[in-house]
Structure formats: C-alpha cells, structure tokens
Amino acid sequence: MTYTGKVAKKRALYPPKKIMDKLDMNEGQLVNYRIEDKKLVVEPVRDPLELALKSKKWGKTTVKEFEEESEKEQRELYG
User: Fold this and answer.
1) In this predicted model, what pLDDT tens digit does every residue of 39-53 receive, in sequence order?
2) Bridge partners, residue 34, by sequence
3) Which residue ranges form the domains of the chain, and what is each CATH number?
4) What is the secondary structure of 20-68 as a DSSP string?
5) Disulfide check for 19: which of 15, 48, 56, 69 has CB 3.0–4.6 Å away?
6) pTM (2 d.p.)
7) Predicted pLDDT at 61
8) What is the dihedral sign for C-alpha 19, 57, 50, 42?
9) Residue 53's pLDDT is what?
C-alpha cells in the first residue's frame, strides 16, 4: 500500500488518515524514526498500559493468588 503526501511547513510530515487509522495511531502519540536504505521508517511507540489492556491475555491468576505471590516476594526482599 503506497500513499503520497507532501512535506509541509517546518518539514512536518502528515500521514494520511487511512494510514493512521490502520496503525491505530493518534495525535500526540510518540513515534520512533530511523533511516533504512535512504528511507524514513516511522514506528509507533506503544504505551505499556495500552499494550496490557489491549493485548491478548495468555495467563490466568486470581486476586488471592496475586496477593499471595506479592506477599511472598515482599518477605523475600524485605524480610
């Protein structure tokens, strides 16, 4: 998929809305830039909380199990 755009004032780049929607990116979101083979690559920086809330869950635990594990770790760390 290829889209054409322009370099705006102060060299700002504005990707088309279709691209932003497809990448689930929003205004103000952080991005990483890098150059590969004389091409600009832009990648979204995902918020860890957003990833935790939106990603597929692969484990199960109960609140009780979580509390027990937390208490065990605290005892090991702090005595």
Assistant:
1) 999 998 888 887 788
2) 41
3) 9-78 (2.10.260.10)
4) HHHTT--TT--EEEEEETTEEEEEE---HHHHHHHSPP-----HHHHHH
5) 15
6) 0.54
7) 87
8) negative
9) 83
